[in-house]
């Protein structure tokens, strides 16, 4: 069972902690196994909002599939050398280390920002850029992933970060279900538009269409015949096509293509080749992916867009 370890620092912002913790807790409740741990350099951890917290002093044994998250804090609250060492060691062993808001400072102190892209709360960006000149600050985005180091902006963006990580591990359908349980928006890669494909097309009230979207979200990399989608909704093919298009303005095939394109863009941003990204999202080769990217580029630059 993958572990999610939250490192608590005095003066931490409650939502920096509670947002990601709720996301992974909800994911566990939905059957995506996670084991949450809370550690600190002292037992009593005061939050900036005044709620006292307690945490363990002993870290669990970490494996490469585990995640360490450092929530942000208010004021000057640097981590100790032992915590910095643990962060660096987990990353060196292949694990993922993430931060919310000022938590990026802890990653910087552990040497994990040097040579990497990162982000943080907009009020802290200038100071962090000066403090870690070997890092590349990315402004005005929700989160940035670079080589097993994931940094997010302030406060509520920790939820977006958690949903992103859940989607990477379990797929976009899992992230959508967690987002729905939390009554929040699902987000996509921080370098891309903030509202992802799934969320942009979920503002309707057609239950049968939602059921089909759930199926496509879960299996968008697979061939999904229209008759099978219609059967899952208990309607005919023509009825499904009509309802689906009326609800979201897209056919089921086009919706699936956009999910594939969004995931492929994410893989490309992380260094994947065009061919590998295409195959990972269900295309036989890169030709269709290139065609969809050209179409998306044309749509963005057209006068009507």
UniProtKB/TrEMBL annotation:
Domain HTH araC/xylS-type: 210-295
UniProt key word DNA-binding: no
Gene3D superfamilies, alphabetized: 3.40.50.880, Homeodomain-like (1.10.10.60)
Keywords per UniProt: Signal, Transcription, Transcription regulation
Keyword presence, Hydrolase: no
Signal peptide: 1-23
Domain of life (superkingdom): Bacteria
CDD domains: GATase1_AraC_1
PANTHER family in the cross-refs: ARAC-FAMILY TRANSCRIPTIONAL REGULATOR, HTH-TYPE TRANSCRIPTIONAL REGULATOR RV1931C
Protein name: GlxA family transcriptional regulator
Species of origin: Actinocorallia aurantiaca
